[in-house]
Structure formats: structure tokens, C-alpha cells
Amino acid sequence: xxxxxxxxxxxxxxxxxxxxxxxxxxxxxxxxxxxxxxxxxxxxxxxxxxxxxxxxxxxxxxxxxxxxxxxxxxxxxxxxxxxxxxxxxxxxxxxxxxxxxxxxxxxxxxxxxxxxxxxxxxxxxxxxxxxxxx
Length: 134
Description:
Structural class: mainly alpha
Largest sheet: none
Number of strands: 0
Distance between the termini: 42 Å
Radius of gyration: 19 Å
Strand content: under 5%
Oligomer: single chain
Shape: elongated
Number of domains: 1
């Protein structure tokens, strides 16, 4: 993860990335709940994208494995848009151009300092003890 992003921006840029992650993750969680709760989803195979949206939405919101979650989300959105135009037309808020651009921006910028990724993979302060000669 450290090789993908040299910095995990904090302060206002980090808060902006947190807001973007919460917006995309919340949208995915809302759509995942509608896909998984509705009775017709089990008959037409929508439970798999619903489960994927649930996992990716939680990952986005927490900032856990953000590059993987954003890549999967972007590829799934593009695949659903082109393979099932009737699903894409009814869910323009989730699979539209603007959310996909936001997901790709998060992929390129990184999760920010307010994420689990920054906690596990962020920069560390290493204190080297001074050696005193005898």
C-alpha cells in the first residue's frame, strides 16, 4: 500500500477524501440494502452485485483496502452499465458518470489520513536511540 501512495493527506485534504469516501460508500450501502431486501432480487440474480456493493461500501466508508475497493467498484459499475443497460438506466445515481469519476479519483488520490489504510500502512516515526560511547 505504501508503494501506491507516498502520502496520506491529513487536515483539509484528508477531510475532503473522507467526505468523498463516505459519499460513495453510503451510496453503495443504500443500493446494496435495496438489492438485498427486495424479494425480486433473488429471482433475477441481483443478490451477487448487492453483496459486492455491501462489502465495497463498508470498505470505502472505513477506508480499508481503498485502492482494491475503488478498482472493484469502478470495474463493476462499468460492467453493469454496459452488460445490463436496463439496470444501469434505473440506477443512474450509482452507476452514472459522476460517481465513477469520483471512484477513479479516490483510486488515484488514495484514502487519506482518516482511514484504516493510513493507520496500518501510513508513515511511521522511527526513533533511533543515541549510542553513548563509554
